Amino acid sequence: MQPLGRGLVPMSQRTSEGVARILRTEIFSGQLKPGEPLPERLIAEQLGVSRTPVREALFTLQSEGLVELTPNRGASVRTVTAHDIVQIYSLRGVLESYAAREAARTRTRQDLDALEDAHAKLERITASGGTAPEQALADLAFHTLISEATGSRLLHTIMGQVLAFTVSYRSNYSYPTARTAAAIAEHRAILDALRDGDADGAERLMREHIASSSRFALEQFHDPEHVPGLGTTD
């Protein structure tokens, strides 16, 4: 396992949340690969923390679908399957279309400004040839802000878990130019519907966006050149 983070974790962040944040970032960035072991002792040594917050962080990441805990074998980065992708995008289609509908009714000026900033950041990253992890995290920010705009803590929490799983997979491949342009246009249409308070339109556009993203994700899954290290079993 490659060294984690940038060295010792500050005392104020030596909690399970702090450790989970570091591990999550390393998974999203591709530094920690699918199937890679996550030994508690080594992680604790590298981060300069005790094993207790590491153990708690691994349980947190297991609940997010990012880590697999196996009795007598310990933790490892979860390997994504085609069945996982179908399930996760089906869930996203339901949850995010509902979130878009609700957000169109409840969004504030601050929410819209934050979404504009997130959209602009994704455009900048795309224009500058950003990496797959950078694209994935920028996309995550946009979708997360929509869940926040609903004002529902429960929905935001559930969507956070679902989106985290998506990003861990999405970080392994870059969108080609045509798909990137389409995704950005889809985001813009969703944002315009939210701005107009068009609940029906926002719901429909989000469902269509997730469906197109799902099709592309499955295409990449079956292309090992684009998604190194991922299995192809159902």
UniProtKB/TrEMBL annotation:
<feature type="domain" description="HTH gntR-type">
    <location>
        <begin position="13"/>
        <end position="80"/>
    </location>
</feature>
<keyword id="KW-0805">Transcription regulation</keyword>
<dbReference type="InterPro" id="IPR036388">
    <property type="entry name" value="WH-like_DNA-bd_sf"/>
</dbReference>
<dbReference type="InterPro" id="IPR000524">
    <property type="entry name" value="Tscrpt_reg_HTH_GntR"/>
</dbReference>
<dbReference type="InterPro" id="IPR036390">
    <property type="entry name" value="WH_DNA-bd_sf"/>
</dbReference>
<keyword id="KW-0804">Transcription</keyword>
<dbReference type="InterPro" id="IPR011711">
    <property type="entry name" value="GntR_C"/>
</dbReference>
<dbReference type="Pfam" id="PF07729">
    <property type="entry name" value="FCD"/>
</dbReference>
<dbReference type="GO" id="GO:0003677">
    <property type="term" value="F:DNA binding"/>
</dbReference>
<dbReference type="InterPro" id="IPR008920">
    <property type="entry name" value="TF_FadR/GntR_C"/>
</dbReference>
<protein>
    <submittedName>
        <fullName>Transcriptional regulator, GntR family</fullName>
    </submittedName>
</protein>
<dbReference type="Pfam" id="PF00392">
    <property type="entry name" value="GntR"/>
</dbReference>
<keyword id="KW-0238">DNA-binding</keyword>
<dbReference type="GO" id="GO:0003700">
    <property type="term" value="F:DNA-binding transcription factor activity"/>
</dbReference>
